[in-house]
Design goal:
single chain, alpha+beta, Elongation Factor Tu (Ef-tu), domain 3, OB fold (Dihydrolipoamide Acetyltransferase, E2P), Helix Hairpins, 4-stranded antiparallel sheet, 5 helices, 42% helix, rod-shaped
Length: 334
Amino acid sequence: MKKIVLFLLLIAIVISGYVSWQYWGSSQFAEESHTLTLYGNVEIRRVNLSFRVGGRIAEILFREGDQIPKGKVIARLDREPFEDNLAVAEAQIQSATANYEKLQTGHRPQEIAQARATVEQRTASLKVLESDFERVTLLLARETITLQEYDTALARRDEAIAAKKLAEETLNLLIEGFRQEEIASGKALLAEANANFKRLQTSFNDTELICPSGGILLTRIEEPGAVVNPGQTIATLSLRGEVWVYVYIPASQMGVVQAGMQAEIFTDAAPTKPYKGQVGFISPEAEFTPKTVQTTELRASLVYRVRIIADTPDGGLTQGVPVTVKLYLNDDPH
């Protein structure tokens, strides 16, 4: 009798193990040979919004829970300091432009004429002083003047020679115009002024916080009047648009699931209303099963994440909601 009981118990254990293997091993998530049933969640897609520049918040145009279309202005900073910086930068561009044009054009004709007149004046003065020096030289030979008077006349003549040479060099420089190095330097200063203006214009544009994608404003962390730093979060946006569902498969199913495979997505709120979808991405890296997806016994199992893209999502696929996904291995939901 005991042998019969042990034999029946052994058969029960074998059958139980076989059923478990059929569920978790060879077809853990399968209901039918052509269907895989997986479990996961709708991805929570949100973005922390912040300004790229710092300043005082002037206004926030939406409240928590508001639907915000893509491209709408969500908030603005006080623009007065940025406008002042732009005015200074614009004046610097004008100054650098005038300087560069002067370097390219060269000196004015009036400046050249003035320098030529100075050369003529120095030439005339030199002739007078050379005549005086020749006369003083004769008088010194006759010993009718002192040596000091001779030295004074010599110094005046040499000074006149130097003054004429300086005037001639000045005239030549004005005629030749500015050096290429000076023109290049003026061009670089103009480019720097333009770049600075562009940088400040970008900062000015960044005083408006633009909605990057359609979504719902979840939180307003800061309020008008607050002074914020660059990159400081002022609001959180829940993104809309393309809905992704993440499910997880064991290594034994990696060769079965393929990108583009048809899927149906079920929620607990509408178990008879499946959403159509398809496999969009299969992670090549294994990870531990998330605690929100599987039972306690299976949490330590290594699985691969699969992204399911919903074809026509609506408000029923709320971010974070748990879902059941059926994959059809023969691409036929029916």
